[in-house]
Amino acid sequence: MVTYNKAGMRLDRDYRIGEVDPRLFGSFIEHLGRAVYGGIYEPDHPEADEMGFRRDVINLVRELQTPIIRYPGGNFVSGYYWEDGVGPPEKRPRRLDLAWQTLETNAVGTNEFVTWAQKVNAEVMLAVNLGTRGPDAARHLVEYCNHPGGTYWSDLRKTHGYPKPHAIKTWCLGNEMAGPWQIGAKPAAEYGRLACETAKVMKWVDPSIELVACGSSGRGMPTFPEWEATVLEHTYEHVDYISLHTYYGNREQDTPNYLAHSLDMDDFIKTVISVCDYVKAKKRSKKTVYLSFDEWNVWYHSNEADRAIPRWSFAPPRLEDIYNMEDALLVGCMLITLLKHADRVKIACLAQLVNVIAPIMTENGGKAWRQSIFYPFQHASLFGRGQVLLPVISSPVYDCKDYSAVPYLEAAAVWQEEKKELTIFAVNRDWQGELVLETELLGFPNFHLVEHLVLEHPDLKATNTKDHPDTIVPRANGQTKVVDQRVTSVLNKLSWNVIRLRQIQEE
Ligand code: AHR
User: Fold this and answer.
1) φ, ψ (nearest 5 deg) of residue 210
2) pTM assigned to the model
3) Which atom of ligand 1 is nearest to 76's Cα?
4) I need a labelling partner for 295 at 20 to 30 A (CA). Which of 178, 449, 470, 484 fits?
5) CATH 2.30.110.20 describes domain 6-14+389-503
6) What is the pLDDT of residues 95-117, one digit of tens each?
7) The domain 21-383 is classified under which CATH number: 3.20.20.80, 3.30.1360.120, 3.30.70.270, 3.40.50.1260?
8) Atom number in ligand 1 closest to CA 217
9) DSSP secondary structure string, 309-336?
10) What's the pLDDT tens digit per position in 10-57?
C-alpha cells in the first residue's frame, strides 16, 4: 500500500503578495571570530589578492549573489571607533574589542570592506555605533562615506585613496540596543531619543540614505514588543525600517519541533508589522515603516566550544557552527517565511557569511567550502526575485512540543515576469514519508519544467567538511510532471525543493 501524504497549492497569476526587494537576500560580516581575519581577509593565503582578500572566498560569495552585506557588527559596532579603521594601515590602533573579548587590529576597516563588497557585487549596509557614541560620530561617517568632497571628512576619504563617494544607501542606527550584553545598552525611550537625533543629522548630511532603527534582539526579550512601540514613537518619521533578529537551535534534538520554528519567525514578523501600524495610526502618519530582518539563522552548535576561548585572542574560531541537513531544512523554511512577507520585509541578512554561523567555511591557510545552508540561501537568492504569489495551500498538519497544526508543507512561489519563470520553493517537514504536491496554475498556461532541484540526505546530522565538502549538495533529480496547468511534484521526506517552471513563449 502506498502511504504518502498529499498537499495542494493554487497559484493565480493575479493574486500576489508583493515584489521581492533583492535586499531580502542580504548577509552579514562582523568583526567577530574569523569572519574578517582568516575569512574574507588573509594576506598570507596563497589565494590572497593584492589587497589580502581571499579569492576562493570571493568566488564562493559571488555564487550566492547576495546583494547587500551588513557591516561591521553586530555587537562589535557598539564599541567601534570607525576612525580607527581608515587611513594608513601602519598607524591603525590595536584595540580590545569588549563585545567579543578579542583583539582588534583594524587592518580591515570601512574602505577595505567597501572595496571587498564591490568584488562580490554587493552593496554595504553600514551600522553606526550608538552604544558608546552618538550623532557626531555617525554624521561624520556619513560625510566620510557619501559626501563628494570639499569638506573635512570627505576630503579625508580622498587622502585615504578613495576619490569617489561610497554611496552607502542603507544604515543601521546601532545594534540590539535592548540587550544587556550590548556595550552601551539603553532603555527604549533613551535609545529612541538618541536614534531620532542621530537619524536627523545623518539624513541632513545625505537625504538619500535609508535608516534602520533597532528592534528587539529577539521576540523572547522581556521588553518585546513594547520596545518597538516606544522606539517608533520617537523615531517614526525619521526612519524607514525597524530591525528584527532571530536564531534557532535544536538543543533538545526534537526535529519535528525544530523544523516548526519558522512559525515562530512568521508570528514575530506579524507582531512587528502590527506594532509599526499601531504607531502609524497613533501618529496619524501616511508613512509605512518596513521591516529589516537583519540577523537570522540557526545558531547553537558552537555555544559550548566558545566558552573555552581565551580572552583577548586574535580572530579565534568563534561561533563556528557546523551545519547539518536539518539546519538546511529550517533555513529553507525561514527563507520561505521571509518570501511570504515580501510586502513588508524589505531587507533580511543571513547572519553571517563566512566562518561565523555561516554558509561558507574556511581553513586558515587552506581550503574554503560550502556548508549545507549555503544551498537553500543560494537557490532563494538566484530564483526568488520577482513577484511573490499569494498561494492557497492545503497541507496535512502535525502537533509538536511548542506548536500545533504545523503544516508538513512549507511553500512559496515567485513569478519572474521578464524571464517568464515561476519557481516553487517547498520544504517537506514530514519525517515519515514523501508528500505529493499538486499545484494548480490559474492564468498561467504553457509551462514546462526547467528543473526540480532537491536537497536531502538520509542522515539529518550529515555535514559538509573540508575533506568531504559535497556530502550535502543539491541534485536536479526531483520528480515533477506538468500536464496542462497542473504540476505534480513528489517532495521526498525531509527535503528542500526548488521547482523551476518556464512559460513557453507564443510565436
Ligand atoms: O550574529 C552574532 C551576534 O548575534 C551579533 O553580533 C549580535 O547582533 C547578535 O546577538
Assistant:
1) -115, 145
2) 0.97
3) 6
4) 470
5) no
6) 999 999 999 999 999 999 999 99
7) 3.20.20.80
8) 10
9) PPTTEES---S----BHHHHHHHHHHHH
10) 999 999 999 999 999 999 999 999 999 999 999 999 999 999 999 999
